[in-house]
Amino acid sequence: MKKIECIIRSERLKDITDALKKIGIGGMTVSEVRGFGAQSERTDNFLFVHKTKIEIYAADSQIKDIVSMVLTYCSTGKIGDGKIVVLPIDDCIRISTGERKNKAILKRGGKKE
Question: What is the DSSP string of 5-31?
């Protein structure tokens, strides 16, 4: 199990959400965030740039497809496209049912690990 955090351009959110739903992710959390990186040289935005952060809990078997989709739908080839971080998860529990690990993160009735 992994947690994927993606910082993307906000205008890419709808396209990446639609694409990720089609490959069967169990859900995701979206936050509006601000930060700086290579774009911090710009003087017109007071250092912080508005971005969107996506967080996805996924089975190991889904990671390659999710990362590929984010790269495909969120890359413009320009500075400021964002980052993808893949982090390990020790455990995950679905609060409503007590299901653990992959059962807690995969879509109900979805692919089993």
Answer: EEEE-GGGHHHHHHHHHHTT----EEE
Residue 37 in any domain: the answer is yes
Number of domains in the chain: 1
Q: Hey, which residues does 57 pair with through a beta bridge?
A: 3
Entry pTM: 0.84
- What's the CA gap between 35 and 77, in Å, rounded? 19
**Quick one: pLDDT at residue 108?**
67
Computed from CA positions of residues 7, 21, 87, 90, in that sequence, does the dihedral angle turn out positive or negative?
positive
Range of the domain at 44: 2-105
Q: What is the CATH number of the domain that holds 37?
A: 3.30.70.120
